Amino acid sequence: MRPTNHPSLHHPLAHGPGPMLRSRAARRVLVAALGLALGGCGNSGRGPAIGTGEAWRDPLSPVETRVADALSLLTLEEKVGQMAGSSLLAVRGLYLTPPNDRVGIPSFAMADGPRGVSAGTGPATAFPVGMARGATFDAALEERVGEAMGQEMLARGGNVILAPTINLLYHPRWGRAQETYGEDPFALGELGAAFVRGAQRHVIATPKHFAVNNVENTRFDVSAEVSERTLRELFLPHFRRVTEAGAGAFMSAYNRVNGVYCSENGHLLREILKDDWGFEGFVMSDWLLAVRSVGPSALAGLDVEMPQGDHFDEQLVEAVRSGEVPEATIDDAVRRILRAKVRFGLVDGTRPAPDPSVIAGPEHATLARQVARESLVLLRNESGALPLDASRLRSLAVVGRLADTANLGDKGSSSVNPAYAVTPLAGLRARAGSLSVAHVGTDAPSAEDLRAIAEADAAVVFVGLTSAEEGEGLVTIGDRRSMELPEEQRRLVLDVARVQPRTIVVLEGGSAITMGDWGETPAAILMAWYPGMEGGNAIADVVFGDESPSGRLPLSWPASEAQLPPFDNVSPAVAYDLFHGYRHLDRTGVAPRWPFGFGLSYTSFRLGSLRLADTSVARDGMVRATVEVTNTGGRAGAEVVQLYVGFPGSAVERPVRELHGFGRVELAPGETRTVAIEFPARDLATWDEAAGGWRFEDLEYRVEVGTSSRDLPLTAALRVR
Ligand code: BGC
Fold it and tell me: Closest Cα to residue 184, out of 708, 624, 711?
């Protein structure tokens, strides 16, 4: 009997065999048993022979046996053929790699991307952007988003999704800020891993861009200069986390790290990702211009050149023949490619494409609305300006060009063709009932417009950024030129707030927008990010009080750009240290406009009874904390409890505090619940440059729990032994 010879059956990503296979397996088990009983040692007892293609095609053979079988059948040219995309242009929205029909190896079919599926010619569900999903602090919800996108990708004929983007937001002006989940490595890891788990129920996920990809305008060449400690403690923990979640692929970044292009950076790809973290998947390059060499890229551990083989072609064959690249390096790359094709069901066709009606169907639309709703962050709310009671008000002015614009985000690679899009105006009108809603559709209202706005019971003004202000480099506008609102919109807020005391500003954009002289003028400010195709309905849910806002800032919101480290998107090399976002603000003692983790609610909460299961935890153990949260207000609502750790007395300079856990909890009025937070103690180690490894300090770590990085009423002491 060879039960352990069938790991593919036990792999969580593999579907079980069909009835025919079951009976074939049963037959083989019977034959093997007979062989043993008769003292025989014939090949029939060992399963399909290697070197014939039989094992490769056999769903019951172990993955590595199947891979070895196919590899043994491929010529050098055929192996290299597996290591590059087929063409510059997508075919029906899918970037393909070539099949090998002789051996029976299927293609990868890839498409973006982070806020929905761009594959195929038809529309898809346009979810809120990554930054909005970061604001939900809801990993279970993000897993459902990953699953929905994975399903839509499969329904469109794809098998690899080029997502999630998990680059750390070092500065809010990064043009692709909207694609990622925020500034904190722990939060990035939690949400990225959740997306990977969800998406990989259907397709291969591709965390990107590995690594230290922080600017757009110089992205093809800039060298990010980082110490090994900064790399390990700040820029990589989330990539390690998605590796542990089983990510099937990685995409390398365009930029250089410490002078070496990421696509040929052996330290990143080979030493850290593959050797140190044990990543078993394959690494593909980013798109045009990402690969600069033949031999160095292959040797460094790049497995697939996308979107076509400009280097991984006959030049790579030649590099092997000349002895520059050992054939074992090619074998390792192809093994990774074949392994992914087996593990994710591409070879056996175990994942029949779902009915295309799932695409932007009611379930995914409802999910998109829930995500958008949970992502809205209420930043300011004076005198209970929000929520609006539609049954009591008579007239509402909805102001601004963006009010009736489907503002879904960047038009670069993350762009999604939405099945439909509910604009804020449409969403508010649909929920307004007898309340009369007048739209002032300009950013430069006339005196007459302002009179009408003044006479309304309240005004909701839509301002923010669009794809004209921020996006992917080269293909779209690139990095933001400023952190301020466009001038016309700044004036719009000031003008409306001057005449209408109940002015509610709804802001859109991919990250923080500084507020200069207008931030204190409106009664309320709601951050809506790029809220996806159901955004208008979600905004109405919160504005009219059907839901209490529960989004929390996944980034620090500075009062002015001067509070942050400089943003450099012109120099050929840019140095980064351990201190950005709240780490920088805590170190300099500066109060931001709103801290990381902040967000108001229509209700109120009280936190208490912080308990550590163990105040002295083994290095390989888990830190376990519980906190009680009570809804002390009169409405249902959700709170995000955050756990930070500080390192008083550390021998090296460490951040004042770092996020190491969070939990989102929904509570009815008066209800109390216990939130449990846990994380591995290993996360508290520091990288020792001299020793080249992780080291635990003999410290009394300070555990702080609260509702933002600047509101941490509960503390406890912890030791790691
Ligand atoms: C982007 C990637 C994207 C790829 C394919 C590149 O320019 O950087 O994020 O997945 O294009 O569209």
Answer: 708
